[in-house]
Write a structure and sequence with these properties.
Layout (H helix, E strand, L loop, with lengths): L4 E6 L3 H12 L3 E7 L3 H10 L4 E3 L2 H7 L4 E4 L6 H11 L4 E4 L7 H14 L3 E2 L8 H11 L6 E9 L7 H11 L5 E9 L5 E2 L2 E2 L3 E8 L4 E7 L13 E6 L2 E6 L4 E5 L7 E4 L7 H11 L8 H22 L3 E2 L32
Parallel strand pairs: 1-2, 1-4, 2-3, 4-5, 5-6, 7-12
Antiparallel strand pairs: 7-13, 8-11, 8-17, 9-10, 11-12, 13-14, 14-15, 15-16
Helix pairs in contact: 1-8, 3-4, 4-5, 5-9, 7-9
The structure holds nicotinamide-adenine-dinucleotide.
Length: 354
């Protein structure tokens, strides 16, 4: 009998392929089945992986080919129903749910709660958390090597808050060691009516998230965003502390650090792991099967999803979204146009009274 964990992947697109390749590259797993609702995607997987069973319906796959592990790699709105179906149908030992956990924080929370209730380990593949360069940066910031963390700016060209911004917000949450959020403000414009990964998204947005102690993340996303030419290898991050700064690309092995030890600034190459981020996440999850699950990354992913949803709500309702997010209720709209002359009547607050 094989000691490998059997794996099924739901969703055979870009995200699903990352899990499929990771499973095939690892000695810990055996890929048993793939589901994709599109017959042409199924055909292409049948041709590439003749020994693997391929389905168009995940419930049929769960009935016909039960596995130890399921990877949920479809679009965010279907993560919850597919996860619940997997939990109900299978004696699951572990699960991977792609980021963003759901299309809303409530959906992500429902997924995480259901998995916690089952007590099985869970992977959410935020790969900045398993790459050598960005993990090293995280450790340096947390160790105080640039002093106290003050701000993080991120430029996310060609990508939106929901689908890539979730990674960037998740890294911000990790940099602050999951410090509670105070509020989020955001403005989106949707001139091009862009959609991506099953979601309507912004053409351009600027979002600001501030923690209780005042650490700020400014995230600029959209179809055409200026990026710092000196920070390469993914979305540019500039992480500023009270005594230094670090500049790093989201997927880069190297980063620039300027602090007391490196007053002129130095580029450090942290190197890379031979295996992919998805393989690292899946193997870490598999090692926890039968032990105590660690939900730190799923929890940070959920916090990031709250920042994502808060950003869109802030823009929709033209308001500051205060946290805890679960308690937020959009305020009654006010008739007040900042930037236009004040008539002298009609109330308001005298801003000269500081
Ligand atoms: N962690 C990462 O680095 C990473 C990278 C890429 C994508 N993703 C995530 O993967 C997920 C999917 O995005 P993608 O880029 O693979 O999109 P995609 O369009 O490339 O693929 C999605 C696939 O899922 C299939 N699908 C959709 N709903 C289904 C259902 N109910 N049952 C079966 N198949 C279904 C579609 O037919 C499609 O082939 C998203 O949540 C995305 O954010 C994560």
């Amino acid at each position: 009998m094989s000691s490998k964990r059997s794996v099924a992947v739901v969703g055979g697109g870009v995200g699903g392929k990352l899990s499929i390749d990771a499973v095939n590259a690892s000695a810990k797993f055996e890929l048993a089945a793939i589901t994709d609702m599109r017959p042409e995607v199924c055909e292409s997987w049948r041709a590439k992986l003749p020994g693997v069973r391929v389905f168009t319906d995940h419930n049929e796959m769960f009935r016909e080919c039960p596995t130890d592990i399921v990877c949920v790699s479809t679009f965010p709105p279907s993560h919850e129903p597919i996860t619940m179906d997997a939990l109900n149908a299978l004696p699951l030992k572990g699960i991977l749910v792609e980021k963003p956990l759901g299309h809303t924080a409530a959906s992500g929370r429902a997924i995480l709660n259901a998995i916690k209730k089952r007590g099985i380990p869970m992977a959410v593949p935020h790969n900045m958390l398993v790459r050598k360069g960005t993990v090293e940066v995280l450790k340096r910031v947390r160790a105080g090597e640039i002093g106290e963390l003050r701000s993080v700016t991120v430029q996310s060209d060609k990508w939106d808050i929901m689908n890539a911004g979730i990674h960037w917000f998740n890294y911000f949450v990790a940099l602050t060691d999951r410090e509670p959020i105070d509020h989020v403000m955001c403005l989106c414009e949707a001139g091009t009516r862009t959609y991506r990964d099953g979601m309507q998204v912004e053409t351009t947005a600027v979002a600001s998230a501030v923690t209780k102690s005042g650490v700020q993340c400014i995230l600029n996303t959209g179809d055409s965003i200026h990026t710092d030419p000196e920070i390469t290898g993914g979305a540019p991050f500039r992480i500023v502390g009270s005594r230094g700064q670090i500049a790093v690309g989201s997927w880069s092995n190297s980063y620039f650090i300027q602090n007391r030890e490196h007053p002129e600034g130095t580029v450090i190459d942290a190197g890379s792991y031979s295996e992919s981020g998805h393989q690292r996440h899946l193997e870490t999850m598999a090692d926890l099967i039968g032990g105590t699950p660690d939900y730190a990354i799923p929890e940070s992913s959920l916090m990031a999803l709250e920042l994502v949803e808060a950003s869109y709500l802030s823009s929709k309702h033209h308001c500051k979204v205060t946290f805890p997010f679960a308690d937020f209720v959009p305020p009654t709209p006010v008739v007040w146009e900042p930037g236009t002359p004040y008539s002298g009547t009609g109330g308001g607050r005298d801003g000269r009274k500081l």
